[in-house]
Amino acid sequence: MESTHQKKATFGKRERLPCIAPLLTTVEETPQMVSARVRGHFPKWLSGYLLRIGPGKFEFGKDKYNHWFDGMALLHQFRIEKGTVTYRSKFLQSDTYKANSVHDRIVISEFGTLALPDPCKNVFERFMSKFELPAITDNTNVNYVRYKGDYYVSTETNFMNKVDIKTLEKTEKVDWSKFIAVNGATAHPHYDPDGTAYNMGNSYGPHGSCYNIIRVPPENVDLGETIHGAQVICSIASAERMKPSYYHSFGMTRNYIIFIEQPLKMNLWKIVTSRIRGKPFSSGISWEPQYNTRFHVVDKHTGQLLPGMYYSKPFVTFHQINAFEDQGCVVIDLCCQDDGRSLEVYQLQNLRKAGEGLDQVYNSVGRSFPRRFVLPLHVSLNDPEGENLSPLSYSSASAVKQADGKIWCSYENLHPEDLEEEGGVEFPQINYGQFSGKKYRFFYGCGFRHLVGDSLIKVDVVNKTLKIWREDGFYPSEPVFVPAPGTSEEDGGVILSAVITPDQYCLSVLE
Ligand SMILES: [Fe+2]
Q1: pLDDT on residue 438
Q2: 387: domain range?
Q3: 428 CA to middle of ligand 1, Å?
Q4: Is 151 within the bounds of a domain?
């Protein structure tokens, strides 16, 4: 027993990690298109834009951001055509970016950075400003999303910015709360084949906080329309009124939305008083593993919440891999961590460390592994207690009814042991257009033998095998799968990843 325990406690520990501080410094934008030098070959059929976004500026004047997620959004565009590649990048001209630039200091708070009162105000004015409602950031640096065929860049506040993907110019700022009663939405919506988009966002009212499922129709009736016609189709009350869970994404099958209420909690009282207490938003988020993780399943056509109460031991997930229905069950695959404290570790001062300090930071973070959960949809009072209700012979995931009527879910690992050596996997992507919501075999992600992804991994979830690409000193972004035309093979295509090194920037295409 002891050796097993020791192995568990030390697995994945690494030493002498290379310093990645140069990857976490402010960069210049490249607004004029530049031609890339192409090495190797691009398939002739590959044509279009690869759009990426991330933080690219970490200070204004003497003010510095604290957290990796706080940096100003830098939009990247790779245009690929007939084997040639051009690149350009522009800082998103958000109101936040413009206000910070004009004042040459941080005037709007971000996730891990509290904007300090204007030093030009007198002491009384500075004190009173702590009680003003804070401006919400529109620094939408997390993801590109699509509604009604238009492209937006999104974070998790109530704001999104519509962008022209050809010029990378912002064309409109959109406020979710002007359309529906939500205070924000995730940066990871799901899409039906007809373009209908689903997302989730919280609302905070006198009756407590709710998790809302949002549907945005695909039709664009008027020119210049944004998210008109958006609807809340279901509201799920938070288990704790003042402490809703934080979530970054959710699952979707053909007929159901799966929401995971995890014990990573947002303490609303702490968040509301953060300005007075002189703390950033992030200080209101806490990992509370005394609670279990709960799955909620909602019929996405009727908006009805299913009665099944599905629980598992505490874990945290940021990205779902895929979900599908089979034999009366929802099967949901997620990248999971047993320890939910990783958000606080991703402070810039931690990421910029070197030597033993950097090793210690890396070894303190939980690794992420792909896991499958099976949720039987039609559970009745007559179902036997203590027996596994999952009929799926191909999965060892179980769902056992308890005396109190709850369904206790235990997961199946979707990976071979080798993945532990790769530091686990995150940023999962699939052949979304053809396999989202369907039974599938492959996903692609980044391996984490460092605090940022340092390999690209293809996982076969049926045979539980890995295919790995890695070069020392190269750090790839989330792999994007592009299917080859005319093939129905699930993995017939390429993955695209923007790979950075301390002194180069390149785009990789892997077949
Ligand atoms: Fe994400």
Answers
A1: 98
A2: 238-414
A3: 9
A4: no
276 class by beta-carbon count within 10 Å (0-12 exposed, 13-18 middle, 19+ buried) = exposed
pTM for the predicted model, two decimal places: 0.94
* Reported confidence tier of residue 2, pLDDT bands at 50, 70, 90: very low
**Cα 181 from chain centroid (whole Å):** 23
Condensed to tens digits (0 to 9), the pLDDT of residues 124-160 reads: 665 555 556 678 999 999 999 999 999 999 999 999 9
d(CA 502, CA 507): 15
CA distance 194 to 480: 21
Residues in the annotated binding site for Fe cation: 188, 248, 319
Do the Cβ atoms of 482 and 428 come closer than 8 Å? Answer: no
**Is residue 393 in some structural domain?**
yes
Look-up: residue for tokens 């033998």?
449
Q: How remote is the CA of residue 154 from the centroid of ligand 1, in Å? A: 10
Residues 407/400, Cβ–Cβ less than 8 Å: yes
Note the pLDDT of residue 293: 98
% of the chain at pLDDT higher than 70: 93
* 108 within domain boundaries: no
Q: Which residues are annotated as a binding site?
A: 188, 248, 319
Which of the pair, 11 or 283, is modelled with greater confidence? Answer: 283
- Over the chain, what is the mean pLDDT? 93
Query: How distant, in Å, are the alpha carbons of 276, 335, 406, 445 from that of 428?
Result: 38, 8, 30, 4
> How far does the centroid of ligand 1 lie from the alpha carbon of residue 261, in Å?
17
> How many domains in the chain?
1
Residue 111: inside a domain, yes or no? no
